[in-house]
Amino acid sequence: MKKLIVANWKMNPQSQKEAEIVFNGIVKIAKSSRNIDIIVCPPFPFLSIGKKIKIKIKNLMLGAQNASEEAEGAYTGEVSPKMLAGLGVKYVIVGHSERRALGETDQTINKKIINALKSKISPILCIGESIRDAGGDYLSFIKQELHECLKSIPKAQISNIVVAYEPIWAIGENANREATPEEFTEARILIRKIISDLYDSKTAHSVMILYGGSVHEDNAKEFMLNGGADGLLVGRDSLSPKKFALIINAAK
Ligand code: PGA
Q: How far apart are the CA of 188 and the centre of ligand 1, in A?
């Protein structure tokens, strides 16, 4: 399987012009890194830039940062997966901790996954604990999240879902500290075991498991090599084509 690097721009940048600059930079990186799949997840208003620019670069794909759990109708402010598919979106981030903090529950996330899959959009499901307690409660927390988010999703659809392990304590500028490749390895093995118990081992091995949370040029290689990550989910450093290029190079 090709490695997967996801760029989550969050609510940045603030202008179309800046977005085009970052996008153009990532296009260049993608052209020189054909053995890596890159997914750019800009805010909704900038998705159309991606559609315009991207043409014919197979390893560069568009992702959204959110999509409604509803198919259509009277839901002010919501965007449906079908609308996103029409813009060429192939992936959608679901369950990000910053959205959970706004009130999204595992049940909503489960509906979002089911709805996205109906429009042939692959969900990038973010899971992860807020604290790593010495007693190991975080392990059952991860299990519970996966069980709820994958509820009633048929086996045949599981390989279309990407799981991103993002420990909340390691995300963003206010992170307590960085996670280690060993901590990721533990979570990765657990995630595969849970999916294997829910479905079977072959299905579990068809799922890509990414690491996310303060990824930068110096730790990217370690998460891939020592942590065995299938890829990375990058926040802050995906907004600088220079820094993002270094991460891609490290991942290679
Ligand atoms: P960060 O964000 O790389 O800025 O920590 C990662 C994420 O929230 O997906």
A: 18
